Amino acid sequence: MSEPRVLLLGGNPGRWKASEKIHEASTMNSGEAWVFAFNGDFVQNLQARVSDLHGYDIVIANADSFAVKHLLELSDKRPSDCKWVTLLEGDALDYIKPRPYIRGLLDNSDLVNCINIHTELYFRTMTSAPVRYLGFPYPAEGIRALSTPIYERRREIFLGPMLLSRWSEYFCARDLGIKLYGYENRITRKWRTIRKNLQKHGSLNPWHLHEKAKSLYKEPNFSILREEPLPDFFRRNGGAYLWLNLDQRYTWGRYVLDAAALQVPIITTRSTGHAETFFPQTMLDNEFELEWAFELMKRLLNDQDFYNEVSAVPIERFAHLQPEVKKKELLSALYS
């Protein structure tokens, strides 16, 4: 078949074409990587109307919880020749609790793309639509180009989650006696988000979440950073000595892929789905194995041979995530 026209409906604001943001393709590590893989277009899912779907062969819809009802309505009214792919967003555990509209959206789909290898069988029980573990394309070579040589890395540990979402990493690493740092969001004052942010946070102070994190952690040797563009994120965190990500979720696990692309050791959990492929030596069975994680961190900090061995992730290990490979997998699942 000829190259299909593809539209991605996602949670981020705006509408754009791949050709307009081609400079972002080499570091795009989220579901928006599908736009670049197909040289397609993007529309924010709540902004999308049925008229936006015309002319596309495939719509890939990111099933953000706030947009599920709207996506169900769009999928009901889509053009008859338009294939619909639902991209399951977030943690699979969020789908265990019964929710309205989600089963209708899945059943309306020509394909359901689950993003965690452990969850495919579960989602197959929820819907009559085909379910495949595909995830996203991943630009490993572009991200590796931003990596930091081992001898230039800072003796610091990057704690993976947003700091108000989970603090188990802090409890795990605080007694190592070296600098720790992580990220927290800055509250925006854009008119589109003022009401939402005021309801959610009770404040429009841009630094409200930072101040809240500082008051909870109370740690002088601990830096709280604001989010930054992906290239800056990779340059900064590729310079940390190791990453700690005690993730309880069954989601895409981007941090594991990012650490592997940057060749920085990460201690993480089996639930991420990628740890067994990229970091089997530093994988935890679950997020509560803090004592084992602490021992692994000490070994990585003190055993250079072990550190080098864990860091040495060959770029060939990402072959199954290359955009062309993922593109072929999705088309095969839709049209075979």
Description:
- The structure is a single chain.
- 34% of the residues lie in helices and 17% in strands.
- The strands form 2 sheets. Strands 2-3-1-4-5-6-7 form a 7-stranded mixed beta sheet. The chain has a 6-stranded parallel beta sheet with strand order 10-9-8-11-12-13, sandwiched between helices.
- The chain has helices spanning 33-37, 50-53, 68-77, 102-107, 120-124, 140-144, 168-173, 194-201, 208-217, 230-237, 254-262, 275-278, 290-302, 304-311, 323-335; strands at 6-10, 15-17, 41-44, 58-62, 83-87, 111-114, 131-133, 156-162, 179-184, 222-226, 242-245, 266-269, 283-284.
- With 336 residues, the chain is of the alpha/beta class.
- It folds into 2 domains: 6-136; 140-317, Rossmann fold (3-Layer(aba) Sandwich), CATH 3.40.50.
- The longest helix has 13 residues, at 290-302.
What characteristics describe this protein?
336 residues; alpha/beta; Rossmann fold; 2 domains; seven-stranded mixed β-sheet; six-stranded parallel β-sheet; 15 helices; 13 strands
Tally the structural domains: 2
State the CATH topology of the largest domain. Answer: Rossmann fold
Bulk shape: globular
Question: Considering the protein shown, what is the CATH homologous superfamily of the largest domain?
Answer: Glycogen Phosphorylase B
Continuous helix count? 15
Q: Just name the CATH architecture of the largest domain.
A: 3-Layer(aba) Sandwich
Summary?
The protein has helices at 33-37, 50-53, 68-77, 102-107, 120-124, 140-144, 168-173, 194-201, 208-217, 230-237, 254-262, 275-278, 290-302, 304-311, 323-335; strands at 6-10, 15-17, 41-44, 58-62, 83-87, 111-114, 131-133, 156-162, 179-184, 222-226, 242-245, 266-269, 283-284. It is α/β, with parallel strands linked by helices.
